[in-house]
Design brief:
The chain has 410 residues and is mostly helical. It contains 14 helices and no strands.
């Protein structure tokens, strides 16, 4: 019996399992750290929304696969599983990597308990020796690294997909006498197999990029979601350890670049990863990748320029942010967001839209997005929310609404 969708269902449930722990952090620090608590509320909401979405889209696939009798029903179940947020066979790897994460934590616990003497929680004197610019560069390295997600979306998804599905095709050809040989091509013309009387013929002809009502797949998106889920699980589990039992936190060096208000609450990288998971799962490829570019490079440019050359304080000096940093953030957000939108849009929309149409839509959408980024950046001190979570949650909503109501595409 084939069981499809179970790992996506497991991922959704795991995201919901994080919620009580996040709630505890919010409750524990509501009075002494309102900034982190309010930002953690957005992380909580992100986990709830994405977790429920995973469950809603995977549960019907699981239930259908349990009732499979005929060959074409098995194929349809397979295709529906490929179109899930984390496609088959990468969905099973979430479970395997989850096991590796917990094994890693357990081994480090054993190592820390028996391998060396406990030396204390923080080393403030060493941390004071770090230059402010070096600290900000270290903090923003993670932001800049997320631009690799765009490369993954454009290139890695195709390469990995072709290799994986070609290998699967060979296995199935050998064991099932070629009856599932349509696995050979992961990229092809989207079709609605629910409206054809001969799904076998259409599936064999068009391959695994199949459109179902409400679901359309590009493998690059699936692999990006897979990466965010794995990284998010690792960071969330280890951050709970850092907060409640720092001794057994396996990557203590990261705490050297934490700000004072971040040491006993969720780290800024948690905000960013779960915010980007939200945008990547729920929004189109071009919108999601523009959001990643803005949240990564835009925020990094604003901070680095503001710290290094910024002199003119915004809000009449009430904030530590500068106009130089805000302008750098706006400019880099628009430029890199537009480039990302066009590059991914050419893959995402294929023959549906011309290059000029994608460019024009990208200019309008990313200009509005960059303005929203500037507004969020300007007002972030009084609002008491981390821009690491505000940007990846709010920017795709703003840009998605602009794209839908002006151009009719989501």
């Amino acid at each position: 019996m084939s069981v499809f969708g179970i790992y996506n269902l497991f991922t959704g449930v795991l995201l919901l399992v994080f919620c009580p722990f996040i709630y505890k952090l919010i409750k524990d620090h509501w009075e002494d750290n309102r900034y982190a608590s309010q930002s953690s509320i957005l992380v909580f909401l992100s986990c709830v929304v994405v977790g429920v979405y995973f469950i809603i889209v995977s549960l019907p696939v699981l239930l259908q696969s349990l009732k499979v009798i005929f060959a074409h029903e098995l194929m349809i179940s397979w295709y529906r599983a490929v179109a899930l947020p984390v496609p088959i066979p990468f969905s099973s790897m979430v479970f395997y990597f989850g096991g590796i994460i917990f094994l890693f934590v357990a081994l480090y616990y054993y190592y820390e308990s028996w391998g060396k003497k406990w030396v204390g929680i923080y080393e403030p004197e060493d941390r004071k020796k770090i230059h402010p610019l070096d600290k900000e560069l270290s903090r923003k390295t993670f932001h800049i690294c997320v631009i690799g997600v765009i490369v993954c979306y454009l290139v890695v998804g195709d390469l990995i997909g072709t290799a994986v599905y070609d290998s699967i095709a060979q296995v199935y050809d050998y064991f099932f006498l070629g009856f599932q040989s349509f696995y050979r091509s992961i990229f092809s013309i989207p079709i609605d197999i629910t409206e054809t009387e001969h799904p076998l013929q259409y599936l064999a002809q068009y391959g695994p990029t199949v459109w179902f009502p409400g679901i359309e797949l590009t493998l690059g998106k699936g692999i990006c979601v897979f990466a965010f889920v794995i990284i998010g699980n690792l960071l969330m589990v280890t951050d709970f350890i850092r907060i409640y039992n720092y001794r057994f936190y396996p990557i203590k060096e990261i705490t050297f670049v934490y700000r004072e208000r971040e040491r006993s609450v969720l780290g800024p990288h948690i905000y960013l990863v779960f915010g980007l998971l939200f945008s990547t799962v729920l929004f189109s490829g071009p919108i999601a990748m523009s959001t990643i570019a803005m949240s990564g490079f835009g925020d990094a440019a604003a901070t680095i320029v503001g710290v290094s050359v910024g002199k003119r304080k915004i809000q009449g000096g009430k904030s530590s942010k500068t106009w130089e940093g805000c302008i750098a953030g706006f400019t880099s957000s628009f430029a890199l967001g537009l480039v990302s939108y066009v590059l991914v849009g050419l893959v995402w929309y294929g023959q549906k839209l011309s290059f000029m149409s994608i460019l024009i839509i990208g200019i309008v959408v990313n200009l509005i997005g960059a303005i929203a980024f500037l507004i969020f950046d300007y007002f972030s001190p009084p609002i008491k929310l981390s821009d690491n979570i505000v940007n990846p949650l709010m920017l795709p909503i703003v840009m998605g609404l602009v794209s839908y109501f002006i151009f009719g595409i989501w």
